[in-house]
Write a structure and sequence with these properties.
CATH topology of the largest domain: D-Maltodextrin-Binding Protein, domain 2
Largest sheet: 7 strands, mixed
Number of strands: 16
Structural class: alpha/beta
Mean pLDDT: 91
Order of helices and strands: EHEHEEHEEEHHEEHEEEHEEHEE
CATH class of the largest domain: Alpha Beta
CATH architecture of the largest domain: 3-Layer(aba) Sandwich
Distance between the termini: 21 Å
Length: 290
């Protein structure tokens, strides 16, 4: 059976690496042929699944240094009929790639906004006067480095090998424990035979908006889980994009949606929310376990 997986391109970035890890995990199943499909943005990768252009997408959801990837959160909220089937946790080790002979010659550093932010302290220490330019991915600027000896890009060691480019500095992320959680996103349950059974899942993700910006409205929703002894591992607000001061909330829960307590919590949650989107239950798999 064929399986197409959308991810952020161009080749060599961390999203593709996570997709390759996922392919290795799928190799233990009955999937006969997996096709990687790079897209220009994270949102387009997720949209490809929503529109049936790809069966799955592997997209970054949260980084241990910089927090949630807002483009992923917004796309999951805006698009319908999507579910999280699995989470992959992958170590992220940034390197500085450049054809310059030394750091003193670098005037511009390119990379994805998340990567630039994850290396902010290193940049301030070793390249305090450079201009940083955000790109759609950590590999977008690599093909132009040979033509500009004053430019550099923050990317991965694997990308440097793929594009045959020299590494000027290694391990430049601000924390040695830097890692990113990727979500495997599918459209519906048709691909469940390839994935971890939801009845054994350890986490549930959902998002909701509230009817009005009133005192205690968020506290009431959170109290639902507290009263039932259900632990939340993440909560984050994002603007609704309707009006200034209006927010929706993303929550990760350490429980399976099929558990009776979770069913009770979700039923009660409907009393306090305007829109409730349940992204599903899934397991979290470290990439070193694949």
């Amino acid at each position: 059976m064929n399986l197409s997986i959308a991810h952020l391109g161009p080749p060599g970035n961390y999203s593709e690496q996570a997709a390759l890890f996922y392919m290795d995990w799928l190799a233990k199943t009955t999937v006969e042929n997996v096709i990687l499909c790079p897209y220009p943005s994270i949102a387009q990768s997720i949209k490809a699944v929503a529109e049936g252009q790809a069966k799955l997408a592997v997209v970054p959801a949260e980084n241990s240094i910089e927090g949630s990837v807002t483009m992923t959160m917004d796309a999951m909220w805006q698009l319908d009929n999507l579910q999280i089937s699995l989470a992959l946790v992958m170590p992220i080790i940034h390197v500085l790639i450049s054809c310059a002979t030394s750091l003193e010659n670098i005037q511009t550093v390119y990379s994805h906004p998340q990567a630039l932010a994850q290396c902010q302290r290193w940049l301030e220490r070793f390249l305090p006067n450079v201009q940083t330019v955000a790109t759609n991915s950590t590999t977008e600027a690599l093909q132009s480095l040979e033509a500009d000896l004053s430019a550099a890009a923050i990317s991965s060691q694997r990308a440097a090998k793929l594009y045959h480019l020299p590494i000027l500095a290694r391990d430049i992320n601000d924390s040695p424990e830097n890692c990113t959680r990727f979500w495997v996103v599918s459209q519906n349950s048709n691909v469940e035979s390839f994935l971890t059974s939801p009845t054994n899942a350890s986490h549930t993700s959902l998002a909701f908006s509230v009817p009005a910006n009133l005192p205690g409205v968020l506290a009431k929703t959170l109290q639902v889980f507290a009263n039932l002894g259900i632990n939340l591992s993440r909560i984050e607000s994002r603007p609704t994009k309707r009006s200034l001061g209006e927010y929706l909330f993303f929550i990760d829960i350490e429980a399976n949606i099929h558990q009776p307590l979770m069913q009770s919590a979700l039923q009660e949650l409907l009393n306090y929310t305007e829109i409730l989107k349940i992204f599903g239950s899934y397991n979290v798999l470290p990439t070193d376990a694949i």
